[in-house]
Amino acid sequence: MSNDVGEEDQVLVRKVTPARDVVLQIWQGRRLFSDAEIDTVARRLEAEAERAPSDADAATGFRLKDLQIGDPRPEPLWDAQGSNNALEHFDETTQELAFRFIKSDARIEQKLRRPLAWIQLDGVRRTFYAYQVYLAFLMLVEERGSRRGMIVADEQGLGKTTEVLLYILFNYLLVENRRHCNAHPQRHLGPADDPNSRCPSAHLWPIVCWCEQNVTRELSLSPRSGATLLFVPKNLLPTWKAEWTALGVQTSKYALHLFVHHSRSPSSRYVGGEYRADLCLVQHDTGAWCPRDASRAHSVIVATTPGSYPRHVLSYFRRSRRVSQADGSLSGSTGYDDGLAWARVIYDEAHRGLSEETIATAILRSLSQKQGEPPNFAFLTGTPELRNGIADALPLVEIINAASPSIGRHDLCRKFASHANLQTIRNTQRKLQRRSLDRDKRTAFAATVAALRVAYMVKRTQESIQNGKPLTQVPPLELFDVWCTSPSRHTKIPIAEVESHVKKSLLNAWPPGTSGPTTSITMEELLRVAVRARMIATVPGLARFPPEKLTIECIKKELRHRRGRSGRLYKHFVELYEGSAKLQVLASIIDRLGTDAEGEPEHLVVLSEFPVICECVQMLCLEKDIKSRWVDSTTDLAERGRIVETFQTGTKLRPREHRPRVLIGTVDVLGFGVTLGKSARLVLMEPSHHRAVEAQAAKRVNRIGSRSDRCCFYRLTNPDSAVEKLLVASQDRQARFGDLVSRFLYGAQP
Ligand SMILES: [Zn+2]
Ligand SMILES: [Zn+2]
Question: Given a cut of 70, is residue 100 above it in pLDDT?
Fold first, then answer.
């Protein structure tokens, strides 16, 4: 193998050829790039990016105005992570293999001085970041080992959707390539050929051909026939559909299709008759159930929701005769085993709906124990430990274990393979939350949590350093605590009254003689009874309304200003405003906003956990004559999407409708998943119990493509409220436990 720069190649590099073509042409020559060539290609990629900045790589530089509001919060919202830490599962050997797999060279990535989505695959429009290719490749390799699944916990904004679609595409290509090798041996290398030569049909695939002595063969990346089942919350179905379209897979080249099986999705398109037989498992002579030979199941991605699965997937594939129970589950021991040829099951937003015994849990469990070979599982979540720490990740671990017959042979997973061990972890987590774990046990538990994460999860952040640079370019996030003291003594009275009521009802919940709530109450229990106290801490004037009036249904039916200022709540607005330091602080934030990249007045996102607070914020905007919209759990999906898009881009406006400058929403609806980067600032009206919830909320505005030089997150807290102070303190405790875990993962930190 020659390593010097040939005259011919130097000419090639100097010619005005797109960098990708240079990469491919040199690759075709089957020799290593020289360092000079690598450098030339990297510089050219940087120059190309300079000329045509993509959406994902928008020019930064617009300077966000300093509002002079709030105290900077020193601790970050997420755990600090360094380079090469265990959860990133990053190593240069795997990266090199990943690049060879797609006929490229990892050294180009190493030479780039800033993050670029430069990696192209023939027949695919979107270009990829190295870390995206890396993960798709890692999933491909690992699912062929003893652990048949993974929790993909990459931070929001890194493009988990893209990573997973790429992984599905890789699987598709493996099947297509191998079938071509079998069907047309004369067009591929045979045993007699020079092992260093290139496959004569290499141009047909963007991955290396099986017939070559290369990655596919070295790692035994066997093709797996079977379809992809994608579980997505219904509000994200349109997002997945859009991401699939944006990926731009040329259907003339690759017959890979995404079908949406959901009754109420506007983008629903079901698998047609042409694929139905391909998707059904058949019993072979050996007795094993597999897809029929030459099945095209690998061409199919079915996106659905757990709720739609029984009717719109199971029954749809004519399995209805076996569906006997009302909820669509199958009778007998098969449960939800559907007899369909799933090779992989992807579950998006896996922090939702799996921590308890739900229909989703039952479906996944059945699929993990299905006849024939169980599918591989990929769980996607930016926050695998959202509510109850590691306990939330355990159902996912159990499903992966069930789908992995030889999990006991996996070095890292072995000790988590038994149900009893996982149950112990669950119990210990509960004790930790009740603060009944002594120091030594806490330390030991942190080590266990760290080991479990490393065994099942991949997690990178935008700030992760790989190949000498962060993964993406996002502006830094600045956090502010804004303390909003009650404007007058009499506004403190309702807060104190409601909170003493909370304490009383908590005390009553414990029979006399037990240890009592003061030592063992969990935060969850407190939050359940403290809902009213938390609303009143934000707007004390709401104390005059009976609790049942402050629900979302009641606000919409009775209190809301359908026509501008005529609502019943609005009649009290001045009084509510004057008693609420938080609304006054919000008003001054709005007053001080500067201009954005386009020179327009800055946009703003305001979130609260409580619909009635959102309503108060909207009344404030109405009073200040600022266009606003608010989105809550009752806003229908299409409308939510439309409002967000109107806010983001100003398109999709209805006649006589104005683009909202302030977007208001409840945390459960706008706090996850959506991109609200039009605003560089986010105001959270009250502290959350969970640091992870605040981190998720902040990520709505702090994303790839943010155009400001920084983003600001304001958390409003009323120091007169014991509950709010407790929430803030509880977050600090969570941070400390997180730090403890971090020390095990990343070594000592100050
Ligand atoms: Zn070949
Ligand atoms: Zn077979």
Answer: yes
Q: Per-residue DSSP letters for 697-734?
A: HHHTTSSTT--BS-EEEEEEE-TT-HHHHHHHHHHHHH
Which residues are 124's β-sheet partners? 249
Q: Computed from CA positions of residues 93, 95, 99, 102, in that sequence, does the dihedral angle turn out positive or negative?
A: positive
CA of 690 to the centre of ligand 1 (A): 52
Superfamily of domain 477-493+548-746: P-loop containing nucleotide triphosphate hydrolases (3.40.50.300)
What pLDDT digit, counting tens, does each position of 140-183 carry?
999 999 999 999 999 877 899 999 999 999 999 999 999 999 99
Shortest CA distance to 162 belongs to which of 193, 198, 191, 134? Answer: 134
**Token pair of 445, please?**
């538990």
Q: What is the pLDDT of residue 32?
A: 67
Tell me the CA–centroid distance for residue 344 and ligand 2, in Å: 17
Residue 561: pLDDT over 60: no
- Å from CA of 72 to ligand 1 middle: 59
Angle at 245 between CA 239 and CA 249, to 5 degrees: 140
Q: How far apart are CA 429 and CA 483, in angstroms?
A: 32
3-state helix, strand and coil shares in percent for the chain, rounded to the nearest 5: 45, 10, 40
Ligand nearest to the CA of 225: 2
Indicate which ligand has the atom closest to the C-alpha of 341.
2
Return the pLDDT at 524.
Answer: 65
The residue ranges of DSSP E strands in 148-270, in sequence order, are 149-152, 227-231, 257-260
Quick one: pLDDT at residue 326?
A: 41
SS3 label, residue 308: coil
User: For residue 396, is pLDDT > 90?
Assistant: yes
**Cα of 225 from ligand 2 centre, angstroms:** 10
Tokens of 620: 């404030």
Give 606-650 pLDDT, tens digit per residue: 999 999 999 999 999 999 999 999 898 888 888 888 899 899 888
**Which residue intervals of 580-705 are DSSP H helices?**
581-592, 611-623, 637-649, 667-670, 691-699
| Residue 373 Cα to ligand 2 middle (Å) | 11
- Render the burial of 414-436: b for 16+ CB within 10 Å, e for the rest: eebbeeeebeebeebbeebbeee
Tell me the one-letter amino acid at 748: A
Separation of CA 212 and ligand 1 centre (Å): 6
In this predicted model, what pLDDT tens digit does every residue of 245-270 receive, in sequence order? 999 999 999 999 999 998 766 667 88
* Sheet with 477-483: strands ordered across: 71-72, 477-483, 711-717, 681-684, 604-608, 662-666, 628-631
Closest ligand by atom to 186 CA: 1
d(CA 78, CA 731): 11
- How far apart, in whole angstroms, are the C-alpha atoms of residue 483 and residue 486? 10
* pLDDT score of 517: 41
Is the model's pLDDT at 656 over the cut of 90?
no
pLDDT tens digits, 109-145: 998 888 889 999 999 999 999 999 999 999 999 999 9
Q: Where are the domains of the chain?
A: 7-52, 224-374, 477-493+548-746
Ligand 2 midpoint to CA 387 (Å): 43
Quote the ligand 2 centre to 245 CA distance (angstroms).
Answer: 33
How far, in Å, from the CA of 205 to the mean position of ligand 2? Answer: 25
> What pLDDT score was predicted for residue 749?
37
d(CA 569, CA 502): 25
- Of the bound ligands, which one is closest to the alpha carbon of residue 201? 1
CA dihedral for 448, 451, 455, 456, sign (positive or negative): positive
Q: Which amino acid is at 510?
A: W
With a cut of 60, say whether residue 80 has pLDDT above it. no
Structure tokens belonging to residue 177: 């390539």
CA of 185: how far to CAs of 37, 182, 219, in Å?
Answer: 35, 6, 21
